[in-house]
Amino acid sequence: MAKNLTSRDTDYSRWYNELVVKADLAQNSGVRGCMVIKPYGYGIWERVQAELDQRFKATGHENAYFPLFIPKSYFSKEASHVEGFAKECAVVTHYRLKNAEDGSGVVVDEDAKLEEELIVRPTSETIIWDTYRDWIQSYRDLPILVNQWANVVRWEMRTRLFLRTAEFLWQEGHTAHATKTEAIAEAEQMLDVYADVVENIMAIPVLKGTKSPNERFAGALETYCIEALMQDGKALQAGTSHFLGQNFAKAFDVKFQTKEGTVEHVWATSWGVSTRLMGALIMTHSDDNGLVIPPKLAPIQVVIVPIYRGEEQLEEISVVARKLKAEMEAKGLRVKFDNRDTHKPGWKFNEYELKGVPVRLAIGPKDLEKGTVEVARRDTLEKEYLQQEGIATKIENLLEQIQLNMFQKAVDFREENSHKADTWDEFKALIKKKGGFVYAHWDGTPETEEKIKELTKATIRCIPLDQKYEDGKCILTGNPSKGRVVFAVAY
RNA sequence: CGGGGUAUAGCGCAGCCCGGUUAGCGCAUCUGCUUUGGGAGCAGAGGGUCGCAGGUUCGAAUCCUGCUACCCCGACCA
Fold first, then answer.
1. Model-level ipTM above the cut of 0.90
2. Residue A161: pLDDT above 70?
3. Are residues A24 and A85 located together in one domain of the fold?
């Protein structure tokens, strides 16, 4: 059978994996660590893309595309950057195959060895900065505000659908500026763009903050991040924006002449979010019946299921269904009328619940008589009968309510699972028993952070941007601290 | 890369220990009839190089050797 999902209480991890597959979002492929994103899952990703892309454009960015392959030598130029990715790179060494002499199949032609190996991009800073050198001579060429939608490859040891795959889809913005101030403002602006989409479209509340040096992006001077809390008490990094200083400009010799005639290195940022957001979506909202998608994100916002006996009755119901569909579509709602005769209503109810469609309308013979329609909302699973008259406006309002309710529910969950710890014992107990975000004092040293990670698996998720000054003592060493940082066990 | 496991129909599994006709079961699929307000019922049907390569044997899914792939637990990580 296996028609029902494993419950979250039984095995959260298993629930997640089953949900991804059964809701038709993605599946494992024949390629190690790489997933197939199915049309329904890709449809949700496309909506995330559209919301982000629109905001990128609105803040003055343009899309471009850079190569998938990067010559190995490029990675030698920025030491700390290569150190961050060296252990997880796929390397292309040959360019030709041939038939094996013993007929056993296709083998690599050893004669076709590349002079210089190519790295499948784990991120594109190096190739982009090598290109920017050609684009930038004068202060008049700045700023450069470019984004690319692409796939990248990081050869992870252990993978999970959406959360960590060897190949994943993302966008990476790479900007070049004349001043440090401007670059920092850019990095902060893009963090706000991410927070806007994640909170207001995906209904996932996030903490904005900066990373501790240990968790900082390889090659960055400052890493800004948004951190979300999942239902199982673990944190998920939902997006990052980096202030890169002049590191890449220096490594790739990107200079410009200022108005005053001096020559200076440019200032850089990079920022990205990935298909990992799909994982955040699932683990923030979904329940034991399946996915729950916030209305602003849902590819299908309203599904209409007819309940009928015989073709004649289906025809009568279809007339009403099409009319209601047209009324809702006129208001810009995304509506599907599922008149397939191959599945029964009960089957469809379960199907759309599993797929997280926010609102379901059912129309049957009783509704024809009374001029009503059964309205079921996915977030609360509540059902009620409403008059068909003026349904479009009612549903439009309901969708807004669902959007707000889902966000509020997630905020409440996060608040319930955010705690302060003032002693080491308290800290250990919180991390171990409840998980969630733990606000605690830290002496600011990488060594202490490392030690805490060893002892509890918890890491500093971020130093909140709205951190309040508060004298305290480091949870582990007792050394002085002037504010609390956020700890959690992370995905 | 260390530890553990698995590989048999589209999916999930049994059979293997103790070799023996035609390799089974559930779900899914197809056909027919009855059904349709929460994953329908009955009857029938199709679907397999038992991961790959060797070996032992009269005979191998089953025993032996080698290989490959995948999964889980660690270390690593958006």
1. no
2. yes
3. yes
The predicted pLDDT at position A104 comes to 63
Provide the token pair at A390: 């003026």
**For A211-222, what is each residue's pLDDT tens digit?**
998 889 988 999
Q: Both A129 and A44 in a single domain?
A: yes
Domain containing residue A150: CATH number: 3.30.930.10
Positions in chain B where some atom is under 7 Å from a protein CB: 1, 12, 26-27, 35-40, 69-78
Amino acid at A351: E
Residue with tokens 């994103």: A37
Distance A106 CA to B17 C1' (A): 39
The CA-atom distances, in angstroms, between A345 and each of A24, A39, A309, A351, A367 are 19, 23, 11, 10, 15
CA of A189 to C1' of B43 (A): 67
Same-domain pairing of A387 and A450: no
- Estimate the share of chain A in helix, then strand, then coil, as percent rounded to the nearest 5: 40, 30, 35
Provide the domain limits for residue A448: 418-488
Kindly state whether residues A235 and A312 are assigned to the same domain.
Answer: no
From CA A280, how far away is CA A367, in angstroms rounded?
A: 38
Q: What percent of chain A has pLDDT over 70?
A: 98
- Domain CATH for A439: 3.30.110.30
- How does the average pLDDT of chain A come out, rounded? 93
The closest of A233, A281, A276 to A407, measured between CA atoms, is A281
